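note to self — DONT lose this again. spent like an hour looking for the file last time. sequence + predicted structure for the chain T wanted, 581 res
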Amino acid sequence: MATKRKATDVSADASAGTAGGGGTHRMPPCTNNLTTALLMDTYQITMAYAYWKNGTHERPCAFDLLFRKNPFAGEFTVFAGLEESLRFISNFKFTEADLSYLRNDHVAKDMEPAFFDLLKNLNCDAIKVFAQMEGSVVFPRVPLLRVEGPLMVVQLIETTLLNLVNYASLVATNAARHRLVAGNDAKLLEFGLRRAQGPDGGVSASRYAYLGGFDATSNLEAGRQFGIPVKGTHAHSYVQAHVGMEDVGDPRLVHFGDTNGVVCDDFKRLVLDSLDLLNLEVRDRLPDHMKWGATNQSELAAFTSYALAFPTGFLALVDTYDVLRSGIPNFLAVALALRMCGYAPQGVRLDSGDLSYLSLRSREIFTKTQELLGASRAGGFAGFGITASNDIHEEVLHSLKQHGHAITAFGIGTHLVTCLRQPALGCVYKLVEIAGAPRIKLSEDVEKVTIPGRKQAWRLYTKTGHAVVDVMLGADEAAPVVGDRILCRHAFVASKRAYVAPARVEQLHHLVWDGLRGGVPNGIDVSLAAARVRCKESITQMRSDHLRYSNPTPYKVSVSEKLFEFIHKLWLENAPVGEIV
C-alpha cells in the first residue's frame, strides 16, 4: 500500500519565496510515494526509446494538457493538481531500482544499454511549464498546462501529469458544484473515505474537496497531511453498544470553566431529571404531531456517556431508533443537563429518512422547547445545528432547497469522492509544436481537432466585473488591451464571432516551472490555502447563468482572428484531398 509523506509543511515549502520577486525554488516530493518516474504508461518508455534511437529525442517541442468538455453536465471546471504536478517535475528521476526493473522487463529486450545510461541522468531541468493557476475556474480547449522542452522528457511525463490533474480537477469541480447548490451559509463536510477508491483516492478527495469549498473532512490522515479541519461525532454502533444507564461509567462532570473544580456528582441523574422535566413542561404542551412517548433508554444512555466524554462538543446521531419520538427528546434531555453544568451543546445529526421533514420538525421542537422553558434554562436551543448525512449529493441538495429544510451542515461522501455522475474528466496531452513547427491533430469529430502551436490565453471581463470570454492568441501576438475591441472567433465555426471591448483583461497562463533557472519562480503560490481562496474568488467572477444547476449557459471560448486563420490554413494543408471516381 502506498504511504503518504507528511505535508503539513507543504504551504511553507511551496511558498517559501513568494514574498520576494526573483529567484526560484524546488518543490518537495509528491505526497504519495507511488508518484515515481515509472508511474507512466508503457508506451511512454517505448516512444522515448524510439525517439532516442532515431536521434530526435532532444528536438524542442510543446504539449498542451487540456480537456474537451465540462463535467457533470455543467459549464465550468475547477483546475486542481498543479502543486502535485510541480512536485513531480521537481523530483523526476529514474532510480537504480527503476532502471533495474526496466532492463529486466520484456519491454526492454530490444533496448540498448546506452539508452539506460541516458535515463539515469534524465530530469526536468530542460523544460518549462506554463499553467493556469490551481483553483481557477477553467474551460474546455484552453490548455491547463503547456509543457515545453526536449521531446523525450516532455513525452515521458505525460501520463503522470494527466493522472495528477484529472481526478483532482474532477473532485474540486464536484465540490464547487455542491457548494453552489448548498449556498455559502451551510457547512459542508467531506465524509467519503470509506467509499473512496483506495487510500490515495480517499486522501486526495479530502484535499480537493476542501479546495473546492468544503469546510472540513472526517479523514484524519488528510487533516494531518494538509491541515484540513477534521469533524466527526459517533456512529449508530455507539448507540447500539449501550443497553441502559448501567453502561454509563463515572457520572461526574466538572462544571464548564470552573477553576475551583465544582463537579456535578451525578450527571446521569441530571439527565433523567431533565427528561422528566421535558415530559412535564414541554411534551404535553406541544402540538400532537410533535409529541413523544417513552423514549429508548439505551439511546439515552449512549447520549449521556458521549456527553460525559465530549461535553464541549456534544452532537448526537438521533436516528438509530426514531428521530422524533426518541432521538430528539433524548438529545434535549442531555442538552438540558449539559446546560445546567455550563456547557453549550452543538446539535444533532440525521442519517436517514425524509431529511426535509425531519429537519423542519426537529427545528420546531427545538424552538418550542426554548419558548416553553425560557432562555434561562434553554437559551440557544432554537439555534441548534442540524447535520444531515444520508447519501447526499447535488440533486438532493437541490431538492431540499426547493422543498425547504432546516439543515445547517451536510456530510457528503460517496457521490462526492467517487464522482458518481462522471467518473473521469477526460484530460488529454497533445503535441502542438515540434522543432518550431506548429502541429495539428485532425479528426472527423471536431471536438478532437487540436488548436496548433504555442498559445497564450486571456480572460476578458465586462464592466459588471464578470468574465465574458476566454480568448487564445498565438504566442507572438500582442496581448488584448483594456478598452480596445478584439474580434473573438469560435475556433471551428466561422459564423460564430463577436467583438469584445474588455473592461479588464486577465492573463491565464503563467510560467510555473523553469528548469534551467532552478524550478518554480518565487511569487507562484501553489499552496492548498491559496488555491482554495482562488477557487472562491474565481467563481464569484462568473455570471450566475454559467453556474446554475439547471440548463447553464455555455461560457464562450474563442481564438483571435489571426489564430483562427492559421488553424484553418494548417487544417487544409494537413487534410488529405479526397478523390471521387
